[in-house]
Amino acid sequence: MVFHFTKKYEEKLRRIQEQIAKKIIVDDKFTRPISTIAGFDLSFLDDTAFVTGIALDYKGMNVIEMKFIRSELTFPYIPTFLTFREGPPIIKLYKKLRIKPDLIMINGQGIAHPIFCGIASHIGVLLDVPSIGVAQNKLCGEFKEPKKVGERSVIMFKNKKVGYAFKSQKDCKPIYISPGHKVSLETSLEIVKSTIKNHKLPEPIFISHSLANKIRISNKHNNIHGSLEEH
User: Fold this and answer.
1) Is residue 231 assigned to a domain?
2) Fewer beta carbons below 10 Å: N end or C end of the chain?
3) What is the pTM of this model?
């Protein structure tokens, strides 16, 4: 994949992010109680992404629908511009879900982003759905690292609260939780905590992440792109 990332093009993408950021709502604008929730993640084999979406019932965390698509990527991995690489296939997959979840989780940042517009926020605005970002690495901001399981620490960036570092499991680094769209800071933390079971990541993302990796490995071993049927 050949891609020329010029300064002019970077400025264009930043302007798009700034416009999306103006539309983000960091307040609870969804119906309670939550009935269904979905998680999205991707796994990569060269420039091919295997994108998975898992819908679960919120109360029991039981899978009620799962889908995946294969997508050929044309945009490279560039920190802070993840939406332009992974966003289009996630949106495409979301639209294929028979069950439209009350809220979605995405493996990436929400407003804990240099422009306050990470992939979870960007997709939330474009789809007009409540969203939360859960990442395994910090992108911006400062916080005091939580030491004990269940501890949280506010992430501050440019004098704003943008999320939480949360210690979800023993012997693991914290996960980084931030509102995407139509969800408040406190509720983002509350929802993520309620969906963590026996793993570092919340169940919607953990299951999606695991499935995406299994599909990638299967394709790699078969050495045939598209060897698995898309659902």
Assistant:
1) no
2) N
3) 0.92
Pairing of strands 36-45, 103-107: parallel
Count of domains forming the chain: 1
Reading phi first (left if > 0) and then psi (alpha if -120 to 50, else beta), residue 65 is in beta
Only one residue has tokens 């960091």, namely 26
**In this structure, what are the phi and psi dihedrals at residue 74, rounded to the nearest 5 degrees?**
-120, -10
Beta pairing partners, 177: 134, 164
Q: What H or E segment, with its residue span, contains residue 189?
A: helix 185-194
Please give the radius of gyration of the chain, using alpha carbons only, rounded to the nearest integer: 17
Tell me the CATH number at 166: 3.30.2170.10
| 198 belongs to a structural domain | yes
Region for residue 81 given its phi and psi (left: phi exceeds 0; alpha: psi -120 to 50; beta: otherwise) = alpha
**Cα 174 to the center of its chain, rounded Å:** 16
**Residues 150/169, Cβ–Cβ less than 8 Å:** no
Beta bridge partners of 68: 52
Which domain range does residue 134 map to?
7-222
Per residue in 52-94, pLDDT (tens digit) is 999 999 999 999 999 999 999 888 888 899 999 999 999 999 9
Task: Please check whether residue 207 lies inside any domain of the structure.
Answer: yes
